[in-house]
Amino acid sequence: QVQLVESGGGLVQPGGSLRVACAASGSIARIHVMGWHRQAPGAQRELVADIARDGNTNYADSVKGRFTISRDNAKNTVYLQMNNLKPEDTAVYYCYVVAGRELNVIWGQGTQVTVSS
């Protein structure tokens, strides 16, 4: 069974930077896609960014040019570097992976990112 452990969330001022990480452990089948969604209070969960095993990336329009997703396949870890953070980026950030022949989707427990002065 695959488990995801997120780290790196916290409080940052507008214009600041944070990096969140998510490490997969356990009985790991081949991981195809790794990524991040976020959910702000009262809002629906939305895609932030994802990255395929070959490195192809996909970003929400709201974060293009500010966020960078990357992954280390040897460590089964995905990173999200967030620069020029805005108050509207405040949310719980959830890591997820798509793994195995059955394309199972596995979610992390979430990490809070708060952008406030």
Structure description:
There is one protein chain. This protein has strands at 2-7, 10-12, 18-26, 31-39, 46-52, 57-59, 67-72, 77-82, 91-99, 104-107, 111-115. By secondary structure, it is an all-beta fold. A hairpin with a 4-residue loop joins strand 7 and strand 8.
* Mean pLDDT over the residues: 95
The major beta sheet can be summarized as: 7 strands, mixed
Strand content: over 45%
Low-confidence runs of at least 5 consecutive residues: none
Overall number of strands: 11
Q: Oligomeric state of the chains?
A: single chain
Shape: globular
How far is it from the N-terminal to the C-terminal residue, by CA?
40 Å
The rounded Rg comes to 14 Å
Task: Describe the structure concisely for a colleague.
This protein has 117 residues and is mostly beta strands.
What is the topology?
Elements: E1 2-7, E2 10-12, E3 18-26, E4 31-39, E5 46-52, E6 57-59, E7 67-72, E8 77-82, E9 91-99, E10 104-107, E11 111-115
Parallel strand pairs: 2-11
Antiparallel strand pairs: 1-3, 3-8, 4-5, 4-9, 5-6, 7-8, 9-10, 9-11
